[in-house]
Amino acid sequence: MTENKDQVAGLLLAAGGGRRLGGRPKALLPHRGRPLVEHAVGVLRAGGCTRVHVVLGARADDVREQASLPGCVLVDNPEWEEGMGSSLRAGLDSLAGTGARAALVSLVDQPGIGPEAVGRVLDAYEGEGTLVSAAYEGVRGHPVLFGAAHWAGIAATATGDRGARAYLKEHAAAITLVECGDIARPYDIDTAEDLVHLE
Question: pTM to 2 decimals?
Fold first, then answer.
């Protein structure tokens, strides 16, 4: 199965402007002494993603300057203010023609989700038709894995901040849920109160 996992690219959505954080881009929030985006890339790599695409938006130039992201494909999303859907579309577009057969999507603002959860979701990959989602006590969360057969449908329905939600709802029966509640905590860093989760 290992060779198959190389067909899965990690896709990190890191474009958000942190509107409820007073306009501090989430990618640059400090975590363990480095920008949060570095931590999130490290989690994808440690979880088994050899290729990582990172979608940047808010203050993308500052992120490029301040974060060390060697070996990552950095994707600019000029429409990042429209919400997560536009970042998901930009990321999936960037994977077209790379030979990737699936995308494992994670969010920059969920540092409670570590390599173990990424690895579990990655282990459920079976080919281009795969749809996998981490679950927390049975509730769908991130990371999610989309086989390439689903990319066009996801891109067509990814609008605003819904990301792939509409598509996943429609294809709920096809999703493999991988319980990760025992190894990860799916909180978001959205408000100043949430900053307590950063180290």
Answer: 0.95
